[in-house]
Amino acid sequence: MSTKNTKPTDAELDVLRVLWEHGPGTVREIHDRLPQTPHRVYTTVLKLLQIMCEKGLVKRDESQRAHVYEVAVSMEQTQQNLVNHLLAKVFDNSMSSMVMRALSTRQASKEDLDEIRKLLDKMEGDES
Amino acid sequence: MSTKNTKPTDAELDVLRVLWEHGPGTVREIHDRLPQTPHRVYTTVLKLLQIMCEKGLVKRDESQRAHVYEVAVSMEQTQQNLVNHLLAKVFDNSMSSMVMRALSTRQASKEDLDEIRKLLDKMEGDES
DNA sequence: CGAACAATACGAAGAGTTTCGTAATTAGGT
DNA sequence: ACCTAATTACGAAACTCTTCGTATTGTTCG
Predict the structure, then answer these.
(1) Model ipTM value
(2) Which residues, 6 or more positions from A42, have their beta carbon under 8 angstroms from its beta carbon?
(3) CATH architecture under which domain B2-71 falls
(4) pLDDT band for position B5 (50/70/90)?
């Protein structure tokens, strides 16, 4: 239940990214894999993980001396939640304006543009 | 200076949206135009505006008895900041994965899809 | 066993956000 | 001038997030 509505904070997203990329790990491992900046002390990361556990963002395996944490929310679902939230809150649910804003400051690669074009084709195909 | 780095909170975004849509207004006007849910008492909105003023998100005209507030940040710039932040933090700067996630849960209208396609064409044109 | 080390648990502090009650201020009407 | 109504100013409370220091617990090794 808590997994659904919980919107991860920026610090929590840092942790989730590590777990999504490297898989489950102990506090020490996660701590070492986090970005250097901002610097975070070991116990800070521990506390963060404990709270994320209460929120249902991660699960904890206590069978080992050093508890092993793993994600409890999928990257896909989290990405969807966040992008939908932004879309509703800031872009009035207009996909095109969001894409426009993103394109206006960012050097999208040709591969990216082609990729998006394919998605559009697929979308339009499904709809008809 | 404060206008640049300040990332508006969700409550602040509600206020900004009202101002972007309706233009400058008094606390009472803004209060009445805010979404019903969550309900916010008049003085809560006032305080919010005062703090946003300190942050540089809005400007205040005190020449009238009832102060008139207006935005100090453009919708475009704010949208760019937020979408870029999301892109970097959650999508590893991959436009296409963000668009894919957005499309995967959302009924994008045909107009939206066409609009995006035009943007892509324009982008690719500028690049060559 | 006991020393040393490593991990977890706990709690508190500081910052930021949001809320709202109460006080002070100002303007209008009679 | 005075009462009333509306507004702003102020500050406190509740909550969350983040940080880190310290205490406690557990493990290993001599």
Answers:
(1) 0.90
(2) A27, A28, A31
(3) Orthogonal Bundle (1.10)
(4) low
